[in-house]
Each structure stands twice: as C-alpha cells, then as structure tokens.
Amino acid sequence: MPDSLASFAPKLILWQRANGRHGLPWQGTRDPYRVWLSEIMLQQTQVATVLGYYDRFLQHFPGVGALAAAAPDEVMALWSGLGYYSRARNLHRCAQVVATQYGGVFPSSAAALQTLPGIGASTAAAIAAFCHGERVSIVDGNVRRVLSRLLAFEGDLSLSVHQRALWDMAQRLLPASPSHEDMVAYTQGLMDLGAGVCARTRPRCEVCPAQALCQAQRSGTVDRYPLKSRKLLRRHESWWLQVLRRAMPGGEQGVWLERRPASGIWAGLHCAPVFASEAQAFALPLKNDWKTQPLPVVVHHLTHRELRLHPLLVDLPPGHALPQDAEGQWVALDALDRVGMPAPLRSLLNRLPE
Ligand code: SF4
Question: Which end of the chain is more exposed for a tag (fewer CB within 10 A), N or C?
Fold first, then answer.
C-alpha cells in the first residue's frame, strides 16, 4: 500500500467533522444498545426509512432487558416493513443472550461482539469503535466499494479470500493512534463517504476528501471497481395467496392468517395461506361456493428471488369456521398493526376492495 495513503485517515476525520452527517438520533451516544440497534436497522436500509422505526423501537424497548423480555410477535410487528426479517429474529435472540449471559451489558471488544447472534464483523467493529474507541475498521458493502476504488483493488469481492485481503487493507488505513473521538469521526466518515459521495453510480469525486489519493479516480477507472465476477442471479417464483375474509363476531371484517414456517421466506411471520398453483388456491373456495375475486399481482423483490404474489380474495359467509385442522387465527383488519407480517401483505390487506 503506498505511503501516501497514510494521509487518508486524517483527511477523512477532518472531512467528516466539517462535512459529514451529524445529529442522527444514534450519533453522539456511547450506549451500545442504541448503536447496535441502529447498525442492525441500517443494514440494507436507508437512513430515512430507519428513523421512524428506530424511535418507535426505543419507545417500546428502551433497553436491552425490555427487548429481551418482549414476545417475538411484538418485535416482529414493530419491525414489519423494514424487511430482511432474520435481522429482527437475531436482534431478539441477541438481546436475550446479552440479558441472560452478560448481565444485560454488551461485551466491549469487536472480537467478543462478533460471537453474538446477528452481529457480523463490520457491525461489531462499528459498535466497538463508536462506543469504546477501539481501533478496528468497519467494512460493509459501501465501505468495500470506497476502498476498492481508493486502492484500485483487483481482487474479486465475490470471493471471501479477497474480502479478507480488503479487510486487512482497511485495518492498515486506520488512523495511527486515534483518540475515541477520532475513531468515531473516522468510522462515521467511512459510512458517510460510502453513502453520500462514493456512490455506486455517479460518485461525486469532486467533493471527495480522498480524491488526490484515489487510484481509480487517477486512472479514470472508477466504474471498474469493485470487481465482482459472480453476478447475483434472481430466481422468479409465483405464490398464490388465499386472502380469506369474513365478518368477525363484533361485526368488523377480519382475515385468516397463518404463521410461516420457522425457516425460509418470511420465516415466523403471519401470512395469508400460500399455494403453489392457482388450481390449489381455488380448490377450497370453489368446493364451498365461496365468493372469489382475483386481485392484481404484486411483485416483491427479495435478495435472491423475485416473488410474484397472486392474491385471491375469498369472502366467507359470516361466522363460517375453517376446518378444524387449519392452524391460524382470524385477525380484525383494524388490528393488523399488532401482528408481525411481511410489508407487501400488510399493504395489500390495508387496501382490500369492499
Ligand atoms: Fe470514490 Fe471518487 Fe472518492 Fe475515489 S475519488 S473514493 S472513486 S468518490
């Protein structure tokens, strides 16, 4: 690594203090619970989206003990809409481990934090740097992009051997003997650079504090990095959703929801019954002569899959009970907020036709 890159950390710290993001609700705290919560929520999710969720979570669960003691459904309902639900399940499990095995206090080092459920190396580094000033580098997806351009890194980042090599480089770029405040500014600076300057498309090199050092920029090869040979292949899948609706004992409308299996898509969330084919979805309603109404297809993107959801609205006669072997529950439409469910289903159920 060229000697000139020793100036990267001081430049980034100065830039962050003058031009970076300040005043976000999870900044300015050294409380590991709050930092951890924000870091988990910010994975694959924009700051603007996280803001409301973060505040609501803290109101319900002001500390790790409260979160650990919550019912899983309560956690899922509050997470609903943020997506990537394994994060919420791990969040809950992690809180329980911290509460029961660590006396409610998060371990302080990045190495120990990484052993907790749902905390990867980069999240552990962020918590340790922000809360304890540990000299350790984050390397999430955004930071990988910044560093691979800065260093014109030729390794294929779809391979873990090259990810580790880039991590080593990230450690070597850290400030030489930083104060706690320096580590906070440096870590936040890496995040701010990745989110707002060194964007995936059209990076704003003209305002980048690393412009004079950036090897990709100097050689006019910014678009080449980060190198990834293996492309993400998204499979297509169709699901038929049977939205069973009927009047509840109090007169309000309700829908039938079943819990998804413990693994796979939307694991553990509540969902309308899912069928692999149109014929299966129609079988029970046709047999019982229930009123059916196909609704517009909803396309939902997951990391590795494109889900095409075909909702079939089925109106049951009032008071009609499903077969006894059906496992699920009737939920009033105005009580959906209390149930953890995938965002596309919630939005579908909130605008069902009369
Ligand atoms: Fe990214 Fe441009 Fe800065 Fe290089 S100079 S790190 S490509 S924004």
Answer: C
Catalytic residue check, 181: no
CA of 187 to the centre of ligand 1 (A): 17
Residue 204 phi/psi, 5-degree rounding, is -95, 70
Q: Nearest Cα to 240, choosing from 200, 280, 191, 197?
A: 280
Ligand 1 centroid–CA 173 distance in Å is 15
Instruction: Report pLDDT digits (tens) over 302-337.
Output: 877 888 999 999 998 876 776 666 788 889 999 988
User: Would you state the pLDDT for residue 228?
Assistant: 76
Q: Any residues with Cβ below 6 Å from ligand 1, and which?
A: 146, 149-150, 197-198, 203, 205, 208, 210-211, 214, 216-217, 222
Average pLDDT along the chain: 91
Q: Which of 142, 197, 221, 224 to mutate to test the pocket of ligand 1 (most atoms within 8 A of CB)?
A: 197
Q: Whose CA is nearest to atom 2 of ligand 1?
A: 205
Cis geometry, peptide bond prior to residue 226 (ω within 30 degrees of 0): yes
Asked if residue 260 has pLDDT above 60, the reply is yes
pTM of the model: 0.77
**Token reading at 208:** 């980048």
* Span 49-104, pLDDT tens digits: 999 999 999 999 999 999 999 999 899 999 988 888 889 999 999 999 999 999 99
Q: What is the pLDDT of residue 263?
A: 83
Task: Kindly tell me the number of DSSP H helices and DSSP E strands found in the chain.
Answer: 14, 8
In this structure, the number of other CB atoms found within 10 A of the CB of residue 9 comes to 21
Token pair listed for 344: 């596309």
Q: Which of 39, 134, 154, 306 is catalytic?
A: 39
Which ligand 1 atom sits closest to the C-alpha of 211?
A: 5
Residue 130 Cα to ligand 1 midpoint, Å, equals: 24
Residue-level pLDDT at 80:
86
pLDDT at 150: 97
Ligand 1 atom nearest 210 alpha carbon: 3
245 in Cβ contact with 313 (< 8 Å): yes
Domains of the chain (ranges plus CATH)?
Answer: 3-224 (1.10.340.30), 235-349 (3.90.79.10)
Average pLDDT in the 103-124 region? 96
